[in-house]
Write a structure and sequence with these properties.
homodimer, alpha+beta, Arc Repressor Mutant, subunit A, 3-stranded mixed beta sheet, globular, binds manganese (II) ion, binds zinc ion
DNA sequence: CTTGATATTGACAATCATTTTCAACTACAT
DNA sequence: ATGTAGTTGAAAATGATTGTCAATATCAAG
């Protein structure tokens, strides 16, 4: 919350960008949800507080939040981006239910290790990876 | 090649669909490239042979090729789908170069196994998974 | 071969997420 | 307080994909 705001403000300063009310609102509302939100999800949430903020601004601000290291983009193959909190959250992968859309966050250090080995074995310098396991969750079966 | 054509024709029959010249052309050209093609890539290739085929038809036919089990959709996070051969190719994951776009096909049975365990440990019934490791390839470093 | 029911086609418009444009507006260093 | 950038929302543009529809092709039946 406050730590994140701090980081965001510093990021803006450092980048020669301005701290505006719109950016503060979008960040605050993003931080308040623990879901994997799309730009449009967030736009809807933002509208409840401030009808004046445009959707382009939400898109633009999400990009900044990501650039500030506060969000990670995730892609569940829906044809749109989703964002999740990054600050204070460790890396994880996702199980995605094809029926109800529920996601479970998972992490297997052995998989992470093997992935790194696999890439370096091909001379690849890894930036990041994306692992999604798609299927039907327990309660949807 | 011929085996795939056979499979495609059978799939069309079985589904009450018709074997048209356009579908044959799109399939043939898809089979001739070993790349991960987008619909538009394929449309460009098709146009060299037959100027009369529309882009909607290429999209529609790729869907059919996938439904027939001859192609797999891959998503490198570019905001568009790509397709690769499925018939006679075993499952693999990808290393994707963020600089030149090159992809390397990789497979680690240990990772595959651990993924399956991870999912079943959460009561998930896996349909498929997507693993892409993004980074900089050897020659781009 | 001809027919006719039904599927398919390409052109075009529509959709959806995201980005761009631009003129009015705001932040903030001086 | 003022000027210079950067920022904003609205609307238009973009790019991938899909829907619509009238004209056309397929193919099983006669
Ligand atoms: Mn997550
Ligand atoms: Mn591949
Ligand atoms: Zn579910
Ligand atoms: Zn490269």
């Amino acid at each position: 919350m406050n730590k994140e705001r701090e980081i965001f403000i510093r990021f803006l300063e450092k980048s020669g960008l301005k701290a505006t009310a719109q950016r503060a609102t979008v960040l605050d509302i993003f931080l308040k949800t623990e879901k994997h939100v799309s730009a449009d999800d967030l736009f809807s949430l933002v509208k409840k507080t401030n009808t004046e903020i445009g959707h382009a601004t939400v898109h633009r601000t999400l990009k900044l939040i990501k650039a500030a290291g506060l969000a990670r983009e995730v892609d569940f193959g829906e044809g749109k981006k989703r964002y999740e909190h990054l600050f204070g959250h460790k890396h994880h992968d996702h199980l995605v239910c094809l029926k109800c859309g529920k996601t479970i966050e998972v992490l297997d250090p052995k998989i992470e290790k093997l992935q790194a080995n696999l890439a370096s074995g091909h001379g690849f310098k890894v930036s990041h990876h994306r692992l999604e396991i798609l299927g039907i969750c327990k309660s949807c079966q």
